[in-house]
From TrEMBL:
Listed name of the protein: Lactose phosphotransferase system repressor
Organism name: Enterococcus raffinosus ATCC 49464
InterPro entries on file: Carb_Metab_HTH_regulators, DeoR-like_C, DeoR_HTH, NagB/RpiA_transferase-like, Tscrpt_reg_HTH_DeoR_CS, WH-like_DNA-bd_sf, WH_DNA-bd_sf
Function summary: Repressor of the lactose catabolism operon. Galactose-6-phosphate is the inducer.
Signal sequence segment: none
Entry keyword set: DNA-binding, Repressor, Transcription, Transcription regulation
All copies of domain HTH deoR-type, residue ranges: 3-58
Length: 249
């Protein structure tokens, strides 16, 4: 297992357990306790965890959904408006919990016939403005910050559903690390739906360029379209376009 991948898995494990000892983590990931101590030191410097005697506990890094509503609003409106043009009659779409998705929903025809799958409570609520949409909400535990469902029940629910398009948000993107995510619990749900779709679309405002989440989420090859702002660097667009379609709006 690559070190970067293990770091993300440690954070995911701590998010579920809240805290764990160094010995427990050593057994869980099959590495020495010294390796775990080194990993925890790195994660503490990155403000992902808090070291405690004999182990570590989680510190939450997800931004609250309501706080994200006020960030880069005009660009998110543009991205959402363009994303809405990719939704067609009778589509089955997975909508992630990103705030740009709210603007996508606002720009859809009110009478469009579509089926919507989501783990996000605010997204599900927003979809009620669509008269002919069928809305499928995943069960599970509620992340109070992001207002998304996660855990075994959410994963079970998503495993039994199929979509033809997925609109996904991420924490950051870069040429080196591609798409990364801080909320590793919601990432599990996104990864489950991706193999079922014929078109995967990431919506991420340009301020997320070169921001790095704790875990690699997706490679460029796994995603069909990235919708982002015009302020993204030309170098990124040129190189990323070799693997996926980058739309700057």
């Amino acid at each position: 297992m690559e070190n970067y991948e293990r770091l993300g898995d440690i954070v995911s494990y701590l998010q579920k357990k809240q805290r764990a000892t160094t010995k427990e983590l050593s057994n869980q990931f099959g590495v020495t306790e010294q390796t775990i101590r080194n990993d925890l030191s790195f994660l503490e410097k990155e403000a992902r965890i808090i070291r405690v005697h004999g182990g570590a506990k989680i510190t939450e890094n997800e931004t609250k959904f309501d706080d994200r509503l006020t960030e880069n609003v005009e660009e998110k409106r543009r991205l959402g408006k363009y994303a809405a043009t990719l939704v067609e009659e009778d589509d089955i779409v997975f909508l992630d919990g990103g705030t740009s998705i709210l603007y996508l929903i606002e720009c859809l025809p009110q009478d469009i016939h579509i089926k919507i799958i989501t783990a996000s409570l605010p997204i599900a609520d927003k979809c009620t403005i669509l008269d002919n949409a069928e809305i499928y909400c995943l069960g599970g535990m509620l992340n109070k910050k992001t207002k998304e469902m996660y855990g075994p029940k959410a994963l079970e629910d998503i495993s039994n559903l199929i979509a033809n398009k997925a609109f996904i948000g991420i924490s950051g993107f870069s040429l080196e690390n591609q798409f990364t995510e801080n909320n590793v619990l919601s990432l599990e749900v996104k990864r489950k739906i991706l193999p079922t779709v014929s078109q995967s679309i990431i919506i991420a405002d340009s301020k997320k360029e070169n921001k790095i989440g704790i875990q690699r989420a997706f490679s460029f090859d796994e995603i069909d379209i990235l919708i982002t702002g015009t302020e993204v660097s030309k170098k990124f667009v040129e190189k990323a376009n070799k693997s996926l379609k980058v739309m700057t709006i």
